[in-house]
Amino acid sequence: MVMILVRWILRLALAAIYLVAGVPKLCDPWSFARAIHNFRILPLAWIPPIAITLPVLEIIAALAVLTGVLYRGGVLCLLGLSLAFAGGIASAIVRGLDIDCGCFGSLAHTGANIPHLVLNLATAAAGTILLVAQARRQRRQRSFR
User: Fold this and answer.
1) Is the Cα dihedral 119, 46, 62, 136 positive or negative?
2) Residue 21 structural domain
3) Domain count, the chain
4) 88-110, pLDDT tens digit by residue?
């Protein structure tokens, strides 16, 4: 019973974080494109399409986790995004860049810093826990058939 509650809390938290992050970026893709550019990681030609599609991906994956429709794919997507964002923030920290990560669009100006790196690693951990829990549930269900 406790694990069910923990899974629901992780599921709601993960989905909420990515919905809150995705919607403002979708509403202002040009500001998000500037934030992506500030990381100095991607070629310029890639930035506009990523600034437009990434928030859509975040929102769709968060809704999948929240509703349970394509749940595993949604969790995998958010786990991958969390790891990619953690890598980008770690790269900015190592290179000494003092930039706004753009993670929550114009809703909140958060720096590419250690606390934000920890947040991304925590969302990755939540995604990992949810995937492992789902795999265990599926194994148990198969063993009862």
Assistant:
1) negative
2) 2-143
3) 1
4) 999 999 999 999 888 887 777 78
